[in-house]
Amino acid sequence: MAAQSTICDFGWKAVDFSLPATDGGRYGLADIRGANGTLVMFICNHCPYVKAVIDRIVRDCRDLEAHGVRAVAIMSNDTERYPDDGFDNMKRFAERHALPFPYLIDESQQVARAYDAVCTPDFFGFNADLELQYRGRLDASKVQPVPNARRELFDAMVRIAGTGQGPAEQIPSMGCSIKWRQAEPAGR
């Protein structure tokens, strides 16, 4: 089911986490924080929206490193109901796409809830002080690429790296809804 992220809550402070990664490590916010900005992304393996843009996400994250911006991707879907998003498949996905950032699993879904993540992909662009400055889309593409689409996320993060401020005008990201675990029935 398609969902759309919410508008940017400028100045909201990034929430710390400690999650296992596909590379065998464990990462927190301090481990991935960039000198000029930090990009926290919620993605997954099976979402057609993510599949359509993953190569451009990789390109933009590589290019952002030159601007002092580092990135991390977090997968928060219920892997019991969506086994394509399981940890072994995450490892394969990371390898296949040569992800230049840690790919973490949020099994408890607590990090996604703390960030109020809505969809995959969902982008949270923070300045050097870990204050939210971007909650928009990668570009105009959805499941079909838009030729020569403006690099909205990249441009916003370069601006944030240089000025600490994100653009006032942002278009929310759209993608598959986060696959939340179903609540346990009462009495269990």
Automatic annotation (TrEMBL):
<dbReference type="InterPro" id="IPR013766">
    <property type="entry name" value="Thioredoxin_domain"/>
</dbReference>
<protein>
    <submittedName>
        <fullName>Thioredoxin family protein</fullName>
    </submittedName>
</protein>
<dbReference type="InterPro" id="IPR000866">
    <property type="entry name" value="AhpC/TSA"/>
</dbReference>
<dbReference type="InterPro" id="IPR036249">
    <property type="entry name" value="Thioredoxin-like_sf"/>
</dbReference>
<feature type="domain" description="Thioredoxin">
    <location>
        <begin position="8"/>
        <end position="159"/>
    </location>
</feature>
<dbReference type="Pfam" id="PF00578">
    <property type="entry name" value="AhpC-TSA"/>
</dbReference>
<dbReference type="InterPro" id="IPR047262">
    <property type="entry name" value="PRX-like1"/>
</dbReference>
